[in-house]
Amino acid sequence: MIDLKDLKLGARADSRTLLTAQWVLGHRDGSHRLIPNGEVVIEGGSLLYVGPRFEGEVARRIDFGAAMISPGLIDLDALSDLDTTILAVDHQPGWAKGRVWPRSYVERGPYEMYSQEELAFQKRFSFAQLLLNGITTAAPIASLFYREWAETVEEFAAASDAAGDLGLRVYLSPAYRSGGMVLEAPGQLEAVFDEARGLQGLTDAIGFIRDHDGRHGGLVRGLLAPDRVETCTETLLRRTADAARDLDCSIRLHAAQGTMEVDTVRRLHGKTAPEWMASLGFLSSRLIAPHATQATATDLKLYADNGVSIVHCPMVSARGGSTLNSFRSVKERGINIAMGTDTTPPDMLMNLLIGLITCRVVEGDTAAVSCADLFDAATLGGAKALGRSDLGRLEAGARADIAVFDLMDHHMAPAIDPITTLVVGGSGRVTKTVFVDGRLSMHEGKVAGFDMDAARLQAQKQFDGLIAKYPERSWAHPPISEIFPPSYPLEDLRHE
């Protein structure tokens, strides 16, 4: 147990605090630098000093021992609901498993499958999980497949409050769309549009950003989030770009990420999604674009020429049989790469390991990418995508967003170079402590003002309730036992 010297969970220290450990990942001259037995001094919400030895006065010294003090991780596709993509891991094809709306469900009228209280809870629960994994800055993402149409201002006002209460830095606003995919027949997916509804969603998102940007001491910032490129119209994208310039905020839009999108956009516009966006003047350095797993060479050149940042989510992509092609080739084009988790568990270290492996497999070259390349993407790449030179690094003047990772975990012994150890170890469970803006947000599995044990039970109950509704929104409405059969047959234990 680390003695935090009177620091309280959920609070910022009232005077200078010095942190030290076997390793500190500092930053100098544009890159991370490992400092053996380094020291970090927090004053208020910022970093006063990062280096080998601090000569000034401090109120307390906290020694984390065999650990690495790191910049907090940045997750720009951070799951903020109870993940439904895990239902598709072993249950295919997606069109038969309630992944998209069948026509029969649309004709009965789509409805919200969660109450507003449940929606608010799942944001808070997900934010706490991010902190447990060393993530200090997040751009939340949630599925709209089980929603009535789009996200609501009410649930995001609750998300804003959750970020402030738990101490997580967030970039957010309600996601909106002008269309959705409807299953007209087995395997036949068609885009159906309601542009007025999409434009109203944009109006709501603009209002949310104006009301919430800068709340909780700057922890909450605005980000426009049109849902997926195939669900957007030209008017919606043009107006989104105009709004982003007016609000001086970024846009996140999922593009070049799957065959359904590629086929739909080509059918609608005769181009790939990046080509279509480029023709609208939508590509810019404001755009953050997960996942790029289906991006062509032409698409990547358009991203590079226009300063677009990609969000790489290796685990969810690889689980579905795809990957960025490849991390090295994208980086060599000069495209900024940030990282995202986009699924359960929201484990960034595990994602870095999968990103390392998939790049080397695609390239057939162990020298194609290093552990440091992936760690850079999860810190400096995310900060660059957000236009924040004060995040993703530990140096004087930066915000005090810090994750402390245990290097003595029994499951990843022995430790070698700390970055290699953490990436190859591949688990956020080694996160010991998290500070956000100088505030102690998580320590040894505890999150300020939040009972994770009780929340875990509530999350399971809520998720089970959602699954029970899947027959209503699955083709031909089969029972749950057919939609999601168990991995192995269930043994009948009844006596004859």
Automatic annotation (TrEMBL):
The lineage of its organism: Bacteria, Pseudomonadati, Pseudomonadota, Alphaproteobacteria, Hyphomicrobiales. Transmembrane segments: none annotated. The keyword DNA damage does not apply. Keywords: Hydrolase. Residues 114-440 form the Amidohydrolase-related domain. It comes from the Bacteria. Belongs to the metallo-dependent hydrolases superfamily. ATZ/TRZ family. PANTHER family: AMIDOHYDROLASE-RELATED DOMAIN-CONTAINING PROTEIN, AMINOHYDROLASE SSNA-RELATED. GO terms for molecular function: hydrolase activity, acting on carbon-nitrogen (but not peptide) bonds. NCBIfam families: PRK06151.1 (NF004801). The keyword Hydrolase applies. Pfam families: Amidohydro_1. This is Amidohydrolase family protein. It comes from Ensifer oleiphilus.
